[in-house]
């Protein structure tokens, strides 16, 4: 499985945008980029995914570099409820996905 | 609400006891998965079932067995629990094995083996 690299932790102020980076330099052409988040004491929650083009949904935006070797999850206006661990995952032709350690996002009031 | 239901939510076992963790989804998903999460760690895949009637090992299958009872249900069995199996267990499902579908997770079973 291709691997991803994320910062261990990040901080952001409430009501400001947050940009969570992910490096995946060994990504293959058929890998989808998925993002999940895990709120305290809860199961992971799907956030967004994409292949080549930038993607938007009600939760976040996903910006994918032109060479696909990196991506950025964008939370447009962080709230305290967005404090969580965010996982960047590559999903390939195998059925399963493997989680890394993710980025712990702290939101400062 | 539609989703993935796990039972029980909490369980304490003595070393050597057996138990089955239950998981059911009502989204007509084909693929189902079992993960464990130890304190401060990411999730590790135990077993998965790409479709009804099939199961495959994940990263950490030793000490566990699974049964895909039907399309809705995927159970995880600990035959002889060990303290190293103390963890939070998450079940997940996905519409199918295709790369462009996300997973839906349950809320977890917190298991303590003493």
What does this structure look like?
The complex is a heterodimer of chains A (109) and B (114). Chain A is mainly β and 109 residues long. Chain A has no helices and 9 strands. A 5-stranded mixed β-sheet of chain A has the order 1-9-8-3-4, with no helix packed on it. Chain A has a 4-stranded antiparallel β-sheet with strand order 2-7-6-5, with no helix packed on it. The mean pLDDT of chain A is 92. Chain B has strands at residues 4-7, 10-13, 19-25, 31-37, 43-49, 56-57, 64-68, 74-78, 87-94, 103-105, 109-113. In chain B, strands 2, 4, 5, 6, 9, 10 and 11 form a 7-stranded mixed β-sheet that branches. The chains are: A mainly beta (109), B mainly beta (114). At the A-B interface, β3 and β4 of A face β4, β5 and β10 of B.
Care to count the β-strands of chain A?
9
Whole-number radius of gyration of chain B?
A: 13 Å
Helix tally of chain B equals: 0
Helix content range of chain B: under 10%
Largest sheet of chain A: 5 strands, mixed
Termini gap of chain B: 34 Å
Compute the CA-based radius of gyration of chain A.
13 Å
Give helix and strand order of chain B, one letter per element, not per position: EEEEEEEEEEE
Low-confidence stretches of chain B: none
What keyword list fits this structure?
heterodimer, A: 109 residues, mainly beta, B: 114 residues, 7-stranded mixed β-sheet, 4-stranded antiparallel β-sheet, 0% helix, globular
Write the layout of secondary structure elements.
The complex is a heterodimer of chains A (109) and B (114).
Chain A: E1 9-13, E2 18-23, E3 32-38, E4 45-50, E5 55-56, E6 61-64, E7 70-75, E8 84-91, E9 103-108
Parallel strand pairs in A: 1-9
Antiparallel strand pairs in A: 2-7, 3-4, 3-8, 5-6, 6-7, 8-9
Chain B: E1 4-7, E2 10-13, E3 19-25, E4 31-37, E5 43-49, E6 56-57, E7 64-68, E8 74-78, E9 87-94, E10 103-105, E11 109-113
Parallel strand pairs in B: 2-11
Antiparallel strand pairs in B: 1-3, 3-8, 4-5, 4-9, 5-6, 7-8, 9-10, 9-11
